[in-house]
Design a protein that fits this description.
2 copies of one chain form a homodimer.
Chain A (H helix, E strand, L loop, with lengths): L5 E5 L8 H12 L8 E6 L1 H10 L1 H5 L1 E5 L10 H7 L4 H10 L5 E4 L3 H12 L9 E7 L4 E5 L9 H19 L5 E5 L10 H11 L6 E6 L1 H6 L4 E3 L2 H26 L3 H9 L1 H10 L8 E4 L5 E3 L6 H15 L3 H19 L4
Parallel strand pairs in A: 1-2, 1-4, 2-3, 4-11, 6-9, 7-8, 7-9
Antiparallel strand pairs in A: 5-6, 5-10, 10-11
């Protein structure tokens, strides 16, 4: 066997799995992953995977197929998925992390099922009340991380404070920035804005002394156009914000295409202008920030968009390997302990 | 005096008031408002307004200046604004509607202050628990309306059901569509998704028989890229969604400009391509949908963006006059009564 980090892959998860998954790994090994010594455990239908590996030699060289007879459908409810559970490619992919046979797990499958199975197998980290789903978000200079974008539909003030710790450790691990700035998503930046839960979380974070670079409230427009690294919110608001941004980008993309294809003259000049357009497309390409991460579990679980292509899948792999090579699980554990020690000292109960 | 609808204008509200306000009215009268018989009560500093009117003859012809010695600052808290209250241009502009001297009021001033003063003077409509702020939103075909985008930070199921009625009447009045489709914003479209309040509102709307065209849950991406006319949500989520969309549009705009200005060659072809680009800019122009509306009060209160220009202000005027010429206040009153009669019949208490 080769050495290096081991990524456990749910090869059957995703709209176009397992084809996109294997092509995504191959793409990764040709580009971002060139020279990196990652290896892959491919969980899924052995005959189909073997056939695909013949066409993807770099992947074949660094992979081991682990046959899983069944799989979770994209539209299955988490409760159904859990009943099906064992023997599915998703279950087995997570199990490999639980049993220490892999450093991280990546799936482009059903989000709710991945969440439920990961919770059940990997369990919450000590001191974490609720895990959170974190998403990367492009902004003019760099990337911001928003959490929770949908692991839970509600959050208490104490849980929001934990999300700040999770986001902080995540940002440091992935972007190697020492003191990422942290904001709390609200409807305004003045102290009196927002509802009771937000205000309580704000007060808690503002008086914390555990080393978080907390900057106070931020608003929706700050996610894409601000300078805050980590944006903390509940899973309902975060999910709506994420999908609203996707819808807006899609709408503008549509208008853009229509405008540029509107008449023969603009068609012609668009062709001439293709260098600039390709550059633009690359910058607003959602595949570039593909890879949500479940934070707060005893293990690193990465979720790729179900409808992604090989480039997007490769980006999610990059996130997975970046995190697996860091010590951010230990950092989270340490920071959360400090947060809760502080809770005890200041008498913060919720 | 001329006949026609009368718009009461807070001429001192807005980042560049009163200049933009007067220029906005002039622009309106030259374009959209050409041939319409609207008149204006201009509340604000008489000497400044008189001076501006000299340069804007169409506006002068159709306006009456009502001197207001003071004004509300853009960053004043609603509580401060209320204390200052009487005598400000904003207060007097609303008062004209209350006293029946105008059909609608338009302000580009402080949103919180406008809301608080409107509530105090115009009062909630009978049967409405909380007013809502509605925003127009572009989508591929037409416009969707989202409410609440920030009048309240929380909403009960019963209030969300009222928002559906408000949005329905608003959409019909503004866009002349008989049965606008209505969706409830959630983190997924399956029945089991969301928190308790959303589920209760969903059940209430789904079993209603008062004639709403309720379609069930929608997600964030459906606001910009779906086909639902009215999207109902609480003011916290709606506000974050609105501002997130603005931030996303701004980010893409920035990337777009940078990409097209990146090298001399693309600069040149961009010049050639300007027809298409102007067309695009017009379609994603936020000024085209300027004009939030406070729904649920005994009067029509329109809020323009504080930082808008004359074109945006003119669009807000268009919304104000469109609504003032409809009977939507009566329709809301009738529909809300039917909703609450139904509440009683089915024993919906909250």
């Amino acid at each position: 066997m080769l050495d290096g980090l081991i990524v456990s892959i749910d090869a059957m998860g995703g709209d176009d799995a397992p084809e996109i998954v294997i092509e995504g790994i191959e793409y990764f090994l040709k580009h971002e992953g060139k020279g990196r010594r990652a290896r892959f455990l491919l969980h899924g239908d052995q005959p189909r995977l073997d056939k695909l590996l013949k066409k993807n030699p770099l992947t074949r060289e660094r992979s081991e197929v682990c046959h899983s007879p069944t799989e979770i459908a994209m539209d299955e409810k988490p409760s159904q998925a859990l009943r099906k559970g064992k023997g599915t490619s998703m279950w087995n992919a997570i199990l490999a992390v639980k049993e220490g046979r892999a450093n991280t797990v990546l799936s482009a499958g059903n989000t709710g099922a991945l969440m439920a199975m990961s919770m059940l197998q990997l369990r919450r980290m000590h001191g974490i009340q609720r895990p959170a789903l974190a998403a990367n978000w492009p902004r003019p200079e760099g990337i911001s991380v928003v959490l929770d974008v949908g692991a839970n539909v509600e959050a208490t003030a104490s849980q929001l404070a934990e999300f700040a710790v999770l986001g902080d450790a995540f940002y440091r691990a992935l972007f190697k920035k020492e003191h990422p700035s942290i904001g709390l998503l609200n409807v305004g930046t003045e102290d009196q804005k927002g509802h009771a839960v937000i205000k309580a979380a704000h007060e808690r974070l503002a008086e914390s002394d555990i080393g978080l670079n907390y900057k106070g409230y931020v608003e929706g427009n700050d996610i894409s156009f601000g300078n805050t690294d980590v944006v903390v919110t509940d899973g309902f608001t975060g999910n709506v914000a994420l999908k609203t941004a996707e819808g807006t980008a899609k709408l503008i993309g549509k208008f853009f295409n229509e405008a540029l294809q509107g008449n023969p003259w603009s068609k012609f000049t668009t062709m001439l202008n293709s260098v600039a357009l390709i550059k633009l497309k690359k910058r607003i390409d959602p595949r570039g920030v593909n890879g949500g991460v479940f934070l707060g579990l005893n293990g690193i679980v990465i979720k790729s968009h179900g409808g992604t292509d090989k480039v997007g899948y490769s980006n999610a792999l990059n996130v997975a390997i970046g995190l697996a090579g860091s010590n951010f699980l230990e950092e989270i554990e340490r920071e959360v302990e400090r947060l809760h020690d502080e809770d005890d000292n200041i008498g913060f109960i919720e």
